[in-house]
Amino acid sequence: MASTSNMFGLKDSSLIKTQGYIDGKWVDSKDGARITVTNPANDKELGTVPEMGLTETKEAIDAASRAFKTWKNTTAKHRHDILLKLFRLMQENSDDLGRIITLENGKTLAEGKGESAYSASFFEWFAEEAVRTYGETIPSPFSNTRNVTIRQPVGVVAIMTPWNFPSAMITRKLGAALAAGCTAVIKPPPETPFSCLAITELARRAGVPDGVINIVTTQKNVIEVGKEMCESKTVKKVSFTGSTPVAKLLYGMSASTLKKVSIEAGGNAPFIVFGDADIEQAVQGAITSKFRGSGQTCICANRIYVQSTVYADFACRLAEKVSAFKVGDGLDEKTTHGPLIHERAVNKVAKHVDDAVSKGAQILVGGKRLDVPGSFFGPTVLSDVPSNALINDEETFGPLAALIKFQTEDEVIKLANASDVGLSGYFFSRDVGRVWRVAEALEVGMVGANTGMLSHASFPFGGVKESGIGREGGRHGIEEYMTVKLIVFGGI
User: Are 64 and 211 in contact (CB under 8 A)?
Assistant: First the structure.
């Protein structure tokens, strides 16, 4: 562990854990197998974590089940206090937590620290929501009965998260689960497990009891681990963030026990610039939405529609700003955009660029992978992207801005909604009437009107169509981890 800790260069090296966590103990896999974690900026090994499987998953579920018997009976105020302590511990260790994110994910250190702060905010938010899980009194049609509802934790929760936000995707789910009184078994992504393990260590320090949080790390055994999480009768809820195809598989598996499911799946966000928009504001919004995390976010602008009257102006300004990006190691202060997570991600961006260009698109900036160590693709802007380009149907998940010209409002609404998914959408306009019309017409779960930012702990996050089920964050987030029980009092 010492050598791995040294690779991260933290102030508190004990935050780096290289084992899974079951029933309050740091443990290895039964067969000793390991997963190698690398820095995508240079392909160097950061360390290893256990390659766990079905046996460890069942042990983690059993531990969570035992812990639930007591954790569910703690008061909301008690859980509030523990979550606030965990929030403060994350604040105190924000530099280290941000550095871990940068090293295993690749995003810049500024983004890593930003994610760490965002992650911590979910523990603060749900600490306050814990003490507001109100029931209600329902007027009775009979004089001798009284009716009330109470909210209770659903039980053991299985949490599966992606690598693009290795910290925030954990806390957005775990904060709500703990606040509700649930216990959890978490499968973090094999590309970025150290952030999850560091948060688990801080949770232990904050006083979260043994068995309430359990971590199963796996890569090769992900199918059997996921299947067990979904089909186990002990697990009462599954929360997943990831691709739509995987979401459908997990949803199907979970149906065998009719457990609660919340899913945040893929997106293909439209970004619309109308002729009456503030173009400079729209350009900045596109940069914020499209290129944050080097384009590796589920709410990234994927299809950028620009009205013909301002198309040339917008394209010129966007290309100029993107050409000024500094791509490199996220720890370098001069870097504005880091690497992609792995070579497969680079290949997908290259595929989308090549496809669009072969069909008539023009490269304004970038357009190729960088000939340096690590998983880098140059930030790219394409103009004149045709309607039959792959990027219109597939989420790129990389630093590729595809510009598509449109003429009328009705036309662009049809184009924007011509997708099986509907997570987020953005548009820029200074026409008040149009702002309302378009916001209501877009078939997405979240709309950014004259902004490229949508995320905050107090906001409900989620999509429609094949982008998922349920909401995370906001006051809605804790409801996903609770059930409503009716109590009728008779004989009064």
Answer: yes
